[in-house]
Amino acid sequence: MIGMLGITMGAAPAGPHIHVTGANGFIGRAVADRLRAEGCEVSGSDLRAGNAEDEDVAALDLRERAAVIEHIAALAPDIVVHAGAISGAMLAADDPALMFDVNVTGTLNLAEAMRLAGVPRLVFLSSNAVYAPAPTRAPVPESAPVGPADAYGASKLAAEAVLRSYAESQGIATIALRVSSVFGPGRVTPYLVSQTLEAIRAGEPLTVTDERSNMRQFVHVDDVVEAVWRAVEADLPGFTPINITGGTYLSEEAIVRLLAGEPPRVPITVIGERGREDDGHVGPLDIARARELLGYEPAVDIAAALGEMAGPIVAGSSPA
């Protein structure tokens, strides 16, 4: 039986109660599934309620402070995994105010609700977009300069500032996972992988950048879920930012060729500059801290995973 606020009734929890925001999303849903498999009691919230398969996901707008406070007070979770957000610059490119309202105000409201309810721990899905453009492609540790130009990166950095304050002044221990671009089956927002697969399916030519610009850092959703689980287990004090990536640093061209087959199924034009840096003008993320504090190591081979995603589409097409 499910209560009005998404509380599972009538079943004794086998592990800690973990609340997942954004639980209907690409990452949030996968995280919730993993937490249940690990024996945790899981509740979820999202902007829309869950369907019959996800009936423990309650509708909650994180921008509504009173509603968030009531929701967290009623649930009284042990830990919150905060995956609820506008998850990329492309999703509100023409509405930066909305980006800040959801990603910053929503995070503030959640932190305040946790403070009032006495919830001691938070795992936050941040982003590598918080890093400032760098003059070289040297590895990027968590101590690297921050300060992005776009609204998405700035909103994630501002959310981190809120959580750092609540960690230091209110004792809410927070691990902020600075995650690179996430890929995998089930992602519905447009990005390089899905756009390439759509072009192959339609037989349309592709224009991509090479190693001169726009280097990409992808991580499979399964590796992100593993990192979240390890963060849940880690119980670190204070505010701790940790880089999470898949261990590759590839050009658009390299990724598209992994998807398009050999010989490629569509014509590919290579250029040197597109006028944007989708993963920031930075070098590869340094994951030494993730290894040390979480025991994290990316396990999914990007070439194999992309090949598996592209396989049925490439098999049904002919070389260009």
Describe what this molecule looks like in 3D:
The protein has 320 residues and is an alpha/beta fold. The protein contains nine helices and eleven strands. The protein has a seven-stranded parallel sheet, sandwiched between helices. A two-stranded parallel sheet has the order 7-9. The chain has a two-stranded parallel sheet with strand order 8-11. Strand 5, helix 4 and strand 6 form a beta-alpha-beta unit. The longest helix has 22 residues, at 96-117. The protein starts with 16 loop residues before the first strand and ends in a 5-residue tail after the last helix. The model is unreliable at 1-10 (pLDDT under 50).
Beta strand %: 15-25%
Order of strands in the sheet with most strands: 3-2-1-4-5-6-10
Helix content: 25-40%
Low-confidence stretches: 1-10
The major beta sheet can be summarized as:
7 strands, parallel
Please state the average pLDDT score. Answer: 90
Oligomeric state as shown: single chain
Gyration radius, to the nearest Å? 20 Å
The coarse overall form would be: globular
Structural class: alpha/beta
Put simply, the count of helices is 9
SS elements, strand count: 11
Strand and helix layout:
Layout: E1 17-21, H1 26-37, E2 41-46, E3 57-59, H2 65-75, E4 79-82, H3 96-117, E5 121-127, H4 151-170, E6 173-179, E7 181-183, H5 192-202, E8 206-209, E9 218-220, H6 221-234, E10 239-244, H7 252-260, E11 268-271, H8 288-294, H9 302-315
Helix pairs in contact: 1-6, 2-3, 3-4, 5-7, 5-9, 7-9
